Amino acid sequence: MTEPEKRRMPPRGLPADDVLAAMRDAASDDADWRGGRTFSLVYHAGDDHSALLRDAYAMFMAENGLSPGAFPSLRRFEADVVRWTATMLGGDENAAGTMTSGGTESILMAVKTARDWARAEKPDVAEPEMVLPVTAHPAFDKAAHYLCVKPVKVPVRDDFRADVDAVRAAVGRATVLVVGSAPAYPHGVVDPIAEMAAIAAERGSLFHTDACLGGFLLPWLRRLGHPIPAFGLDVPGVTSVSADVHKYGFAAKGASTVIYRDAALRKHQFFATVDWPGGLYGSPSMTGTRPGGGIAAAWAAMVRLGEEGYLDLARRIAATAQRLKDGVAAVPGLKVLGTPPASVFAFGSDTFDVQVVGDVMADRGWHLDRQQLPSSLHCMVTPAHEPVADAFLADLRAAAEVAAAGPPPDGVSGMAAIYGMLGTVPDRGFAKDIVIDFLGQMLEVERS
Questions:
Q1: Which site among 44, 77, 318, 447 is 20 to 30 Å from 431 CA-CA?
Q2: In what helix (H) or strand (E) does residue 151 lie, and over which residues does it extend?
């Protein structure tokens, strides 16, 4: 096919079977999440559950949640998901929220709400700030960039949880939001939410718990007796919580929630304009069109699983995660970072380059996320990892032996060199430019 031909869609459409065959062929090199070979991105609760999600999504594929008047079914589904999630996260009858397309949108909405709340309640604050640990999700940096709210970063302690004294010192007159994570993605630990929220309340600031990752898992682990600290709307001072249904809620992409202590706070999330010739326009969240399939599939997932289903999944996930953490800690040279209480953890090494371990594991078909500051590999455990835990640990032990033996061998993927190089670049602006350029290259049209 010539370059000009590649730049155009096919002049004539293909039969449906041919289209699907081409798509299956394109997916042949994708990460094997069904086989438990990935530790991020996909949350799989079984083929039967996935089939239900596909059917529910397809049933409402054409509907648009932008107009609840046109589609009262979606209005009901969203109201149920928000109400059930609020209750799960410690909210009372006054709690209110919305669904969003994912954790990033939920976080953007929480920051936007805090900014607009401050415009009404703190009109003397011209340049709003939010205080957050260095481990908070980059979506907060994105929100700061988009919404002109200055991020004030605070360090974490040796256990990778936010330093409460540093939070207290950082919160000032211009602070409109303080942020904690439950858990923080990098190391799977839960920040000291109660202490941080108390500081926010004392200083007249809102507090957001980012439970995008753990919101649909930690409450069930607490009910099972695991030592999970309180983090939700039942904690004094917490004014909003985000929780992704498409993570440990086992819904289809993309479905998240942002829940507020009351509707009076939620109204600062909304946008409306009344002077458009096209009519009155109001939008509850960042997006205009709101795909009905994601809302419907989230409702279907929660109704199918119910509390008993989520408790059973939490029990299985916790057992597998502990098995993996214990197995990692037993590998010579490896250590789990901090004391992660649930399903997410990172591990590193003081004796060899753990990124080489990641390269060897990639060569053996395992997809582990790479981290820095400190250098580590990241695991996010789902039910898909239950049957492959022993195989993973066997390969991990072999990979650690390779890394301990010396320089990286030929034939591995080479990400160790990339992470090693970027980690030593003193000019972080230059490192950022490299990442931006890489994104551009990934989005380029294939020319070969």
A1: 447
A2: strand 150-154
> Is the pLDDT assigned to residue 421 strictly greater than 50?
no
Angle formed at CA 349 by CA 345 and CA 350, multiple of 5 degrees: 140
Q: Find out whether 244 and 106 touch, Cβ atoms under 8 Å.
A: yes
Count the neighbouring beta carbons within 10 Å of the beta carbon of residue 40. 16
Per the CB < 8 A criterion, the answer to whether 374 and 337 are in contact is yes
Torsion sign (Cα): 162, 164, 167, 171: positive
Whole-angstrom distance, CA of residue 8 vs CA of residue 1: 11
pLDDT, tens digit, for every residue of 252-274?
998 999 999 999 999 999 999 99
Compute the distance between CA of residue 341 and CA of residue 329 in angstroms, rounded to an integer. 15
Q: How far apart are the first and last CA of the chain?
A: 10
- Tell me the residue type at 324: L
Q: Where in the chain is the domain with CATH 3.40.640.10?
A: 57-302
Neighbours of 443 (CB within 10 A): 7
Integer Cα distance of 236 and 72 in angstroms: 35
Max alpha carbon distance in the chain (Å)?
70
Q: Which two tokens stand for residue 83?
A: 């109400």
User: Distance between CA atoms of 187 and 379, rounded to whole angstroms?
Assistant: 9
Q: How far is CA 409 from the centre of its chain?
A: 34
Contact predicate 94/261, CB 8 Å: yes
User: Angle 245-251-256 (CA atoms, 0-180°, nearest 5)?
Assistant: 30
- Place domain 309-441 in its CATH homologous superfamily: Aspartate Aminotransferase, domain 1 (3.90.1150.10)
pLDDT in tens, 185-215: 999 999 999 999 999 999 999 999 999 999 9
Beta strands 96-100 and 256-260: pairing type?
Answer: antiparallel
Residue ranges of the chain that CATH labels 3.90.1150.10: 309-441
CATH of region 57-302: 3.40.640.10
CA distance 210 to 218: 12
CA atoms within 13 A on the CB side of 423: 15
Helices (H) and strands (E) in the chain, counts: 15, 13
What was the pLDDT predicted at 3?
65
**Closest CA relative to residue 364, chosen from 395, 394, 325, 320:** 395
pLDDT digits (tens, 9 = 90+) for 111-163: 999 999 999 999 999 999 999 999 999 999 999 999 999 999 999 999 999 99
